[in-house]
Design a protein that fits this description.
It is a single chain. This protein has helices at about 45-65, 80-85, 110-120, 145-150, 185-195, 205, 220-240, 250-255, 325-340, 350-360, 425-435, 435-450; strands spanning about 25-30, 65-70, 95-100, 100-105, 125, 160, 200, 265-270, 290-300, 300-310, 365-370, 395-405, 415, 420, 460, 480-485. It is α+β, with helices and mostly antiparallel strands and about 475 residues long. It folds into two domains: about 25-40 and about 210-485, Creatine Amidinohydrolase (Alpha-Beta Complex); about 65-200, 3-Layer(aba) Sandwich (Creatine Amidinohydrolase, Chain A, domain 1), CATH 3.40.350. Strand 9 and strand 10 (about 300-310) form a beta hairpin. It is globular.
């Protein structure tokens, strides 16, 4: 999500192992992957959504939840879309799930028509005007309480709310009662069922270990692969056509965005603007020797690259003249180890500890050690100290490892792509149902092993073209780092 990422070392089999880097990264000629031919975008079958509703109901039963109130808006749409296929655009929306009445979708004025073309579940879609923007019609208005009761919510029930985050006891004493969706909704629910009977249930979807969206099916992997192919093409076009003298706006124009839904705004920063981290492009002219970061995210995948706008070491700034050996080579060697050891069953707590211990000898510290991704760019992360979570088949991971340089005058590096992990059965299902996507994944695996010298487990499914390709000098796009035996 942020520019400049370091790398990661994975440990497996529930044991902490100290891995010494015994291979050396060198700068060589690389044959980058060209654009991939894509057919129509994969769609999640309606039957998958029906099964998701059943899985949600089973989770509700396990947790003693009688009704679920799932909130969404333009920014926080992922859980509603995962359940129903519908994503709020300009307005808020609520999906109500009760055992007695089934799902009910509440939408604003501009959601009425849109939901008809996007809903993938059988449910009542009801207009409730206060979900609309201010100044829009409010005629024939029922109260929120009336609608909740019509959906089957009544006194004594335990109601779970789902927004976009949940809290832990380290943050709040009564973390289950801390709710992030709009207070007017929570207030009305608590009037009906009682204050302590309304709880935060976002973990049903977002928990990094057993949340419904932390481990996804092959259909979602196929969608993410389609997005990864598109978005990596956008970033690759910028790198391969970049020229000093272009404005940042002109450089972004090289992306040729096609209208696929964005998970993030478009980012491009050159020169001193890199200090702003998440900035949108500007009219600034890109100069020879500038550090540059470029990134964009689509639903399912984000790609980011950061390096210098030079063709060789000759035009690097004096304070970063050893950029290749000081920053890029150690980074790439560690990233190679990450891809080599990534596989189903890897313990995420050991991953985190390995990362932090190794970066003690690196020229940067870590702000992030990677995370889960889906429709939003960041859903959660299983990588934290003493994490008991293991990598599971179906996880889609964003290689978002953010370095904070020890020397603030130096620039970092970024090679951020999206990767899925799938066991043998998952890979077989993907190959059967989405053969074109699977062929592209196999080509990427071949690229990583032959062009980049990496050894990767069969569980690793690279979703982006030029996955893990580190080009230290952006004006020499045919030159990249490769692992070679010492």
């Amino acid at each position: 999500m942020l520019p400049c990422l370091p790398t990661i070392i994975f440990l497996q089999n529930n044991m902490r192992m100290v891995l010494e880097v015994k291979k050396k990264a060198v700068l060589v000629d690389i044959e980058p992957q060209g654009a991939s031919e894509l057919g129509g975008a994969p769609e999640i079958p309606r039957g998958v959504y029906r099964e998701r509703i059943h899985r949600i109901e089973r989770k509700m039963t396990e947790k003693g939840i009688d009704a679920l109130v799932i909130y969404g808006d333009k920014e926080h749409f992922g859980n509603i879309k995962f359940c129903s296929g519908f994503d709020p655009r300009f307005e808020e929306a609520l999906l109500l799930i009760t055992f007695e009445n089934g799902p009910m979708l509440l939408v604003g004025d501009e959601g009425v028509s849109y939901c008809k073309g996007t809903l993938k579940i059988d449910c009542d879609a009801v207009l409730w005007p206060p979900l609309s923007l201010m100044g829009m019609p409010r005629e024939k208005l029922k109260t929120f309480g009336q609608l909740l009761k019509e959906a089957g919510i009544r006194a004594g029930m335990k109601v779970g709310t789902v927004g976009w985050k949940y809290f832990t006891s380290s943050e709040f004493e009564d973390s289950e009662l801390e709710i992030e969706i709009p207070s007017y909704m929570v207030d009305e629910l608590r009037k009906i069922v009682g204050t302590n009977n309304v709880v935060n249930s976002t973990d049903i979807f977002m928990h990094p270990g057993d949340g419904l969206r932390s481990c996804l099916d092959i259909h979602e992997i196929a969608v993410a692969e389609y997005a990864g192919t598109l978005v990596s093409g956008c970033v690759n076009r910028v790198i391969e056509k970049l020229e000093p003298g272009m404005s940042e706006y002109e450089a972004i124009g090289l992306m040729k965005l096609n209208g696929y839904p964005l998970s993030t705004h478009v980012m491009l920063m050159s020169g001193e603007r890199n200090k702003f981290a998440l900035a949108s492009p500007s009219a600034r002219e890109i100069s020879l020797g500038d550090p540059l970061t470029v990134a964009v995210g689509f639903w399912g995948s984000l790609v980011c690259r950061a390096a210098y706008v030079v063709g060789s070491t000759d035009h690097l700034p004096d304070h970063d003249s050893d950029y290749l050996s000081h920053t890029c080579i150690p980074y790439f060697e560690l990233m190679s180890e990450w891809y080599t050891l990534l596989r189903v069953s890897t313990l995420c707590g050991e991953i985190f500890e390995s990362v932090t211990s190794r970066t003690a000898k690196m020229p940067f510290n870590l702000f992030s050690a990677g995370h889960l991704t889906h429709l939003e760019e960041w859903t959660h992360t299983p990588f934290f100290s003493n994490s008991p979570i293991r990598i599971r088949s179906g996880m889609i991971l964003q290689a978002d490892f953010i370095p904070v340089m020890s020397d603030p005058l130096r620039f970092g590096v970024n090679v951020e792509d999206t990767v899925a992990v799938a066991d043998e059965h998952g890979r077989y299902e993907l190959q059967v149902h989405y053969p074109s996507a699977y062929r592209r994944i196999e080509h990427r695996r071949q690229f990583m092993t032959e062009e980049l010298g990496m050894k990767i487990d069969p569980d690793v499914l690279p979703l982006c073209n030029n996955q893990a390709l580190l080009r230290p000098f952006l004006l020499a796009s045919q030159r990249g780092l490769k692992i070679q035996d010492q």
